[in-house]
Structure formats: structure tokens, C-alpha cells
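PROTEIN–LIGAND DATA SHEET

This sheet pairs a single protein chain with one bound small molecule, zinc ion, given as SMILES. Inputs appear in the order they were entered. The predicted three-dimensional arrangement of chain and ligand is reported afterwards as a C-alpha cell string under its own label.
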Amino acid sequence: MFVDGCFWHRCPLHATAPTTNGAWWERKLNANVARDRETDAWLTALGWSVLRFWEHEDMEHAAALIAHEVASRRSTGTV
Ligand SMILES: [Zn+2]
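PREDICTION REPORTED AS:
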């Protein structure tokens, strides 16, 4: 489970683009997102369930989704 910061991981609702050193920030933030996708792919390939939440999301709801995923994997014997 990851909680992604809205700025650092380019939330579709809250991402901002700094104007100072804009090109540097563009590369930095794009690299963060690309690394997120690579991490997701690696973990999924290893059999992990990858759950990502934005920092703006309701964490009680996130916790419920995590509990649901754990229960689901237990019932299928994948945990
Ligand atoms: Zn956000």
C-alpha cells in the first residue's frame, strides 16, 4: 500500500506545475510517476497486490479497501 503525495506523484486533481525551474520539475515529477508504474509492475509480477491511494483520499475508506483486499487474498489462499 502506498499513499502518494498529490504534488510528488501528479494527482490528476491537485497536481501543480512549478514555474521556477519548470523543465527540471517536469522531468523530476515525470520520473516519479514512471518509477511508480515500474514499482507497481515489479510488485505485481512478484504476486503482491499493489494498492495506491492519493493523500487527499479518505484514509478510512483506504483502510476498508485494504482490509477487503487482505480478506479476498486470504479466501483464495494467496496470502
Ligand atoms: Zn490529490
